[in-house]
Structures
1.
Amino acid sequence: MISPAPSTHDTATTWALAARGGDPEAVESFVRALHRDVRRFVTHLSADPQSADDLAQDTFLRALGSLHRFEGRSSARTWLLAIARRAVIDSYRHASARPRLLATDDWEAAAERAGEPGLPGFDDGVALTELLDALPDDRREAFVLTQLVGLPYAEAAELIDCPVGTVRSRVARARAALIQSLRDAEYADRAIPAPTPCR
């Protein structure tokens, strides 16, 4: 019987454990394997795409600085996303103490140029961000972790520190609210009264 190939998450955990011993190739592989997940998570959690690269970099700096304490009890991905969550919280604290100024006059054009090719444009990103921002924090976090970052429900529950069923419930309610918001917006564009959702 052929054993299944290890998942990216198992491989990233293996790399993290190897990187603990100072293997530079393992460090590079660990960062490369999880960078996209971390960037996507901090972008949605912070609701500030402009600071996503800085937050991702801060996350990896923190992680590499404390890698010697990583024992592999949870996956490296879960461990790293917990660090990313703290980095976002710390950035909120820092931002509240000192407001940031935008370095460019044409911020829309700069945001469009910074986007990855093949992804939805700036207007789509703003619309998605507005829809996600309208969700309660706990539902938004569960939705982003499981639906956008792709974390399994069990890992999301471990990261958020709540039961798996609670995560599933939050995601279901977030999904229903997003669908209803999209329907409301569609009917508003057509100037037709939206149907009342079934209860």
2.
Amino acid sequence: MKNLANIITSSRIIFAIAILYIKPYSTAFWICYFLGGLSDFLDGFVARTLNQQSAKGAKIDSIADFVFAVSISIIVLKYIFLPGWLWYSISLIFVIRIITYIVGFYKYRTFSSLHTYFNKTSGLLILIFPLLYVILKLDVAGAIVCFVSFVASIEELVITVKSSRLDRDCKGLFLREKR
């Protein structure tokens, strides 16, 4: 029980890797996909409830979020035809994220993904993208996910550039505590 939150978080990495090797859109794929997404919501709740919050746990959570998002992106890119504008949008967001991580690593000497509300919303939208794809079709679903992910990426870049210290639990650009 001592490390339950970190175990739940680590399971997201395992599920993310598993979906890359399981037949896409099979029952096993969806089970791993949704358990990976569920772990993202459970780990924080468990950490707070059991008083297991830690800098190490926050770092593992950021890495797990990144691995899961990359896995989902690989599946989408591999099995869904994307129009050019969507490729450009995804590429721009990816470049902004990489720049942010480079700046963060340079400033803080560690992986520095933030748990902002926009990043959490972006992660949720990426998780439910298959559902949005079915309900709203590709253009609308892609535009929504890309817009929120773009805003989240820009916000994280600005916070990373402006902050003198790493605060992974920063909730947003205008929601930060003054230090």
3.
Amino acid sequence: MSTVWNTKYGTRRVRFDPPTLKEAIAAARGLTDEIQQQAEIAAALMNLPVEEVRAELLKTAPPRNSTHIVTSGGREGAERTVIVERKASRRVAAGAVRAALAKRQKP
């Protein structure tokens, strides 16, 4: 599906690719850990019944640290892979930093 816009530089076509159910489920998993809420979010994104989305959600494996989503780019045979990685925070507690600095400053 594409839309044509008339601009001062001429006509421009804008392609619109609605999300797939797999992409909607991945987005919902990124927002919450509860399965019921994931099903409701994905159903709202796709305008599908919650029961249908919940069935598909339960079929898929639980997320790992890295998720590979294969999407079609709207063209036949053109696929791209989107990789979503979650990395743990590297923040160090402020008290631990102060204690390390205090040890270093003592002669």
